[in-house]
Design goal:
With 321 residues, the chain is of the alpha+beta class. The protein is 36% helix and 23% strand.
Amino acid sequence: MDNEKSLTAVEVAELLKITKNTVYELVKRGELPGYKVGKKLRIDKEDVENYINNQKITINSVNKTSITKNESMQNEQLNEMKKLESPNDIIISGQDIILDVLAENIREKVSDIRVLRSNIGSYASLYDLYYDKISISSAHLWDGDTNEYNTAYVRKLLPGIPCLIINLAYRNVGFYVAKGNPHKINTWRDLTSQNISMVNREKGSGIRILLDEKLRLNNIDREKIKGYSIEKQSHSAVARSIARGEGDVAIGNEKVARQVDGIDFVQLQEERYDLVIRQSDLKYPIYKLIIETIQSEGFKKEIESLGGYDLKDIGKILAKT
């Protein structure tokens, strides 16, 4: 097939000066022949020209308001044609290595869709998911009022958007301290000691939100914590800062603590690490493939080999919002 004679839905829309949705509707009604190349809708240029000529012949017998009516059709009626086209890119957002392994697994199974990574914190990831900047978000956001992870934040940050919350793992989180914990840092209130300085995580990260929620519930003034405004962008970065003596305490997960020499880990609680997918995206096969991959025994064994994760609920749908 000569590519110059084959047009996309967008190109046809530009030629006819209509919306892409109207092109889908014309194909659906059989007024404009269309076909798929892989997962993409294509229309021959010759068929577009024939359609234009037919409209010239029958213009007097056609209701001139039909296109306007077509464009006002409910989204529900257009969804079937939209399924002809899958997304070109899938962007998985979050900072854990589990997501890198997931992306690699999906890349091995698909060739026509790019699987990309965005390394930003949980809060910002959910925000980006709401604004369609990414495809899938990870989250480990603790809500102090419910003592639960993620569900409340997904409902608040993606209002009116039904989502699946799928578990990836559980991780221990706690304080990173110097070897031997010389300052005896064991509780949240210990952070206010004048003898210690902390290294914080950036706003929007799950650990930063955990800290701020704990400070709120314990009526601790953040301004009394030395180093509260010093921010690093990852668990590894804050752990290395403590190892270098740039601060006395930071907060992160146990897995990273075991990878950095010169620090000890003081466990505080177990956190839940989930994946958030919009239910409306399940019409695309790629999203179903991602869920099937997470639920597979092979993926579970691969994550087990990394160590440091509790995988008791991996792949389970824990909530629908």
